Amino acid sequence: MAAKLEKIYNIIEEKLGNNGRLKFAQLTKIPRTQAVEMDDAPEMVAVFKRIASEMLGKNIDELH
Amino acid sequence: MANILIVDDDETFVLSLVEGLFPGKPDFKVFSAKNGKEAVKMLKAKKIDLVVTDIKMPEMDGFELVAFISKNYKAISIIVITAFGTPEIEKNLNEIGAFQYLEKPLDINVLEEKILEGLKQLSDGYVKGISLPAFLQMIAMERETCTLTIKSNEKIGCLYFDQGVLIDAEYDNQQGEEISYDILTWEGVEIEIEKKCKKTAAAIDKSLNHLLIEAYRRKDEQKKRQEQAAKSGEGEDDLLSLADEGIYVNKNPKEEKMDLKKLQDAIKTLKEDLGDGLLATDIWTISDGQALAGYNTQPKACALFNRMTFQMNRSLKDSGFPVLGKYYMLDLADKKRVIVIPLSDYQWGMLLDGSVAMGLLLNVALPKAIDNFEQAITA
Predict the structure, then answer these.
(1) Given a cut of 90, is residue B75 above it in pLDDT?
(2) What is the ipTM of this complex?
(3) What DSSP designation does B287 have?
(4) N or C: which end of chain B has fewer CB within 10 A?
(5) Which of B173, B342, B378 sits opposite A29 (nearest CB)?
(6) Are residues B207 and B258 in the same domain?
């Protein structure tokens, strides 16, 4: 269960809506349904955080 | 017989052209107007074949006139005269080949050649239209501050210029550099120009030339990928297997990474969830309003709701309201409902009858549909 990846998806969806969520899925190439079933691998979390921060225009860690 | 309209506020210059162009050739009639406003009156009163216009003029300038012609007289050839040209800009504009461009001071023989070229294209049956890149180059060159509303088919986007610098672009609730690459390659455009920049913050930090080159590079690549996809015809058997169920899929979608089989499965699942309550459904791309996949597909509805979504978002935003969220729903007079879900570069529309329970729709069918669509675009 990837709690961190799911949380990042939640933040994206909350801040940017469906449009943001779909764009995020396109950029990470990992749909939400798959992300929540994965392990929170550090390298994957780092990729998610980087892409999310770029989309949000601010460091996602500040939003946790 | 060809009617040519010269538009410039410099009366001496205009007189020299009216008297000096095509002397002794009764097949050419040359008219004049001292600004865009007069030119519009002339265009409404006479059948003009070609317009030669200056940029800097009082009341209604050359940009506003070109925009007016783009909207109302698409077949008229235009020659723009400017005092601020450079060889590089001239090369760019000529490559784009939309409207001709000449620098002051003018060589009247060169202008005659350009006019004949422009008229020949008309007689060849080629509708000139207005090239957006050429128009934008002129905006940059003249350091204009303005907001351009660009219409192409069913699409409407905005470009924001501050002193000739493109600072932002907007289309269907998306903004910035990425969406500018889409708008910059639109063809057959109508242009509206408002002489103020409605944005204050710059979301784009690249030059217009860079953006244009990158936009056309992307367009070329996309075209090549489409051609390759059309040749390969991969997965066609799987797709055809669902045709009997009334599920439509565009076999040549613009997005090469879209998994068409999963897209069809998403439609099929929605159909199963909603049963006979689902009357029609389509997934379309916001860039052109064309359906990618659907059931009992409705092309006109795709174009209509694509435009409505854009207009609603724009009106909400301009009025200081938040933009659309996860979906919007319309209750139609014949007890039917339309629900539209914005999905990044796509939208998903559904026509439902009154029997569909809202709980089932909002809590089961829609979340599942979004999950399934997401899997199709990340495949």
Answers:
(1) no
(2) 0.83
(3) T
(4) N
(5) B378
(6) no
